[in-house]
Write a structure and sequence with these properties.
single chain; flat; about 90 residues; mainly alpha; about 65% helix
């Protein structure tokens, strides 16, 4: 009986893997969820008479809480595209 052993070769760590920040993924996930929540809540807020007062307040609350999605995408894009400024000194 011949046994073969599979040798799993690991890929070399590249600079993109070494510089991966999990917090950026969490921010991106929250931003995606918040954009979807705003799009779901918008028809409820726009149709105040047909949706009722309680539904309107709930939709307005969701819209207010999750409006930060687009600015988060913009800030995350700036963080990832702009070079880091190391060694900055400020004069007093």
């Amino acid at each position: 009986m011949i046994r073969t052993q599979l040798v799993k070769k690991e890929a070399p760590l590249t600079s993109s893997v070494l510089n991966h920040v999990v917090a950026y993924d969490a921010i991106r996930l929250f931003a995606v969820f918040s954009v979807i929540a705003v799009h779901v809540a918008t028809p409820v807020v726009a149709n105040y008479n047909s949706s009722g007062k309680t539904a309107w307040w709930a939709g307005n609350l969701y819209e207010s809480l999750f409006r930060s999605g687009i600015p988060l995408f913009l800030m995350l894009t700036g963080v990832l595209l702009l070079p880091k400024a190391n060694g900055l000194r400020f004069k007093k």
